Amino acid sequence: MLISEGGLDIHNGETIGLCAESHCKFLGPLSFPGSVDAFLRVAHLGSSSVRYELALFDGETGEPAAVGWFVHVFVDAETRRPSEITAQMRALFERLQVA
């Protein structure tokens, strides 16, 4: 999404995204070839960072399997100093943001 719609170029762009924090809590098993329902939302949108929250559920039973979060910090590719989230990326995040 960030690459295809947000204009993020991880190889040649001036800004890159780094994982500042991640967490996953196991709640129950999932197994192949079963289906998985995955949900993603933006819980916090700052000037240079975004916190995603995720939940995985068993596609057949609806039982929760895992919940977690991931903090993405956008930085200058050269200096690694925080970089403002672009308007194009911010618009994508706002679509996933929960009030």
UniProtKB/TrEMBL annotation:
Species annotation: freshwater metagenome
InterPro entries, per the entry: HotDog_dom_sf
Protein name: Unannotated protein
